Amino acid sequence: MAQNNTLTTSMTSKTTPVTSTISQLKPNVRHQTLLARVVRKWYRPEFLIPNQHSTIEILLLDIEKNIIQATVRKLLVDRFDPRVVEGVAYKITGFKVAENNGSEIATPQPFRLYFEFGTLVLQSPNSPIPRYGFSFQEFGDIIANDSLDKHFIDVVGQFVGVGELKKTTGGHPIKTVKLENIEKEQITCSLWGKYITEIDEFMKTQTASSGPTFMVIQCAQRIIFQGVRIQTSRYAAKIYINPDIPEVDALRKKLNEGNDPVSSRITQITDEHTDILSTDNILSIKEIKNCQRADDYVTLASIDDLESSIGWYYDSCKLCRTKVELHQDNLWHCKRKQCDGFTKGLKTKVPRYQVRYHVVGIENDYAEFTLFDNHIATLVKVTASDLLAAQEKPKIPDELGVFIGKTYVFKVRVKQDFNIEQKSSSYAVVSMSDDPEVISQWEKKYQALQDCSKPANHQTSTESDPIIQIEDNTAQIEDNIASSEMIQIHASSETGETGDTDGQLLDVQDHTPPLKRKVSRMLEVVEDEHDEPSMTDQESATKKIMKIKMEKN
Q1: CA dihedral 315, 318, 321, 326 (to 10 degrees)
Q2: What is the pTM assigned to this prediction?
Q3: Class assignment of domain 139-270?
Q4: What is the dihedral of CA 379, 325, 148, 408, to 10 degrees?
Q5: Which candidate, 3, 87, 362, 420, has a CA 20 to 30 Å from the CA of 529?
Q6: What CATH number labels 276-451?
Q7: What is the rounded distance in angstroms from the CA atom of residue 322 to the CA atom of residue 182?
Q8: In this predicted model, what pLDDT tens digit does every residue of 150-191 receive, in sequence order?
């Protein structure tokens, strides 16, 4: 009898599965058990048969807040579909653990689960596992980290913009939304299919009294299209509007604690491609330096050099991105008093880009523009942390020189205390674009605003007699020649002959600021050739005027 009891105990110890966490699961091991909550469930349709399910895909969250993907194959869909409900916690036994591969990878885990015919799924009520398993990515990390292309990501931010409904070349409808974080950084998300309808229905409920809107996009994908952006995955994505979760509550609290008022308006993105120009604050650098109103302004400038004396990164708080400093308790304390990192301190810090560049504007006016994580990481394709870790000794990384010599349209922020009261000519960059079309549109808009600000000219002229118009401006041109070295007149001192009036009479030197010449060359590509007279025509007109003046003398 004792022998039989011993045998029963031994058999039980060998066959009774031990509950594991996701990190403890091993491939090719049978009889493993996992206690987890279903935080997302979706269906993949059969190829060319959208009404039939090919697989059920599931995201499982354990007590350690790790997430793993599980797949139910076609033959078992009807068996497990009613037994697995999103939001419910289960004790799952008898599954297969295999390599995480396939066309739709949801998590960075090396393995995924496969339900089998003998898999047992039992509800686990009152489980302490959280309802949601979001793993939110920083906007700067999304832009810089190429590895996020390989799996789904979660994003949270204030919903600040929505675009118009458009169609791709294949006829598929698409709409964009913009999310903004606590640092006023924005990221664009492309919506497809049913997600467009969800946003349209929500927008119908918005009124002038509606407060700030916060959005969570679960199972989004990082893509490269007109820069880095995210998009809703085809089947897995889920959009939450103002969800009751700690991350949104913390974001709302941080925004309310800031000095700037929190805008509740969701703006209409009429043309996302030139959104940086959706303002009348189009100024040159000289005008920005003289302005007396704190606001965001858009200017055209070329990056001339990098300011190396102040470093290229700062140590930031992982909670709110504010600068941190090391205290005597060997913890990094946030400098923002409202942040939990200010009082409690943090064990780790996060290096982030902060690089100051010397820029020159269209009239050779100089200023300093500071670029941050979301700007620099887009081009260098590496985070400041990784770049710093790769250095053998401290230096300015060569990768940061990629901006030098290039021309951009910048949106910069003018601050009341720093720029206006202290008269600093150093500005923080909000956004930037080097798209030739954006540069062309800036030039047009700037010129139009300049023309509107000029006094009205009541003189009239006829197109049939252009010489009259030229002669009317002779006095002004004469004054300009007397006070400038741009035009030099060469004549023979021996004979008094002027020589060839089209060649030796005038030596017209082009002292146009380099950036303006560069912009002119760029505009030749995007402008119609008949919109403006060419430089050759202008020089020819100037020579005719000078010839008339020489003959009078």
Answers
A1: -40
A2: 0.57
A3: mainly beta
A4: -20
A5: 362
A6: 2.40.50.140
A7: 10
A8: 899 999 999 998 988 888 767 889 999 999 888 778 889 999
